[in-house]
Amino acid sequence: MRIVSISEDKKIEKRIAITPDIAKKYIALELEVSLPENYGEHLGFKDNEYKELGVKISKDDKEIIESADIIVQVGLLSVDKISLLKKNQILVGILDPYTNKEKLDNLAKDNINSFSLDLLPRITRAQSMDILSSQANLAGYKAVVESFAKFEKAIPMMMTAAGTVPAAKVLVVGAGVAGLQAIATAKRMGAIVFATDVRMASKEQVESLGGKFLTVEGAENLETEGGYAKEASDDFKKKQEELLAETLKKIDIVICTALIPGKKAPLIIKERMINGMQTGSIIYDLAAIQGGNTAFTEVDKVINKGGIKIMGEKNILNKLPISASSLYAKNVFNFVVNLYDKENKKININLEDEIIEKTLIK
What is the reported pTM? Predict the structure, then answer.
């Protein structure tokens, strides 16, 4: 049985789905591994490093795909590569079923088994496969580093003979995985950290990291059974706006992480709130690719509104692709292991397994 991966469009995606460490693990499972030339070159993984492990390196993507039993990617294959897929092959990746619904439905009709890892259930057994958590962790960390690099003041409090420099005040909007890592990173670097989230369960987590949780009076617990945030009521939104507007007047750096799966990102920080912020403040919007949490977010641009810098990137993980690839490849490996019947050396699509049932595009 052969598992393969082909190169992503590196202008969009620098991560890879099979690192040398993970190739070694697949081979230990007695799977053949095939990759294209220079697959990991941009991350410092030479072809020879793969070859020494027993990986087959090919010049021809068509040959790689057609010979595959399992194809693992970061994103969905391009249209020309999708056309090479054949009946009963397995495709695994972050396939974004909300955006790519038509393409994935067509693959299902052609009896190609597509598994989208962004649909993994939030259950204990799936934690080692949870690509959303592993990648969001890194995104939260990097958002803080990027925003601190743009901030033109010191972050920690500094006491000198010439006077005291106050610690920067950071607000994290959305205390999911990315937000919690942002809180931890900002706190470690000496900032005073505040956080807000529609899920009341986040309060204890925020406070355990040294952050102060901002609670809207009469707050609702807006959490789905799967652990994600859901849409807030109009009354809640109004109260949240009032709290944020007052808080933002004294905040130096804002990290926005609020997302609702499959929907446009909620607009949380409005124009009047930004107008009330201090000159020199920074907003880093991790929700940029889904429309952004602020009124002015633009993908891959730094917008200056009255001295307030608003940043948001299409793919912040392209700024730390080695770490991101390492974690992603491990997540994918754990998912494949759950699919693979080692004793009989075949794929077992067991729809009674919640992990398989939830991620399979039907």
Answer: 0.92
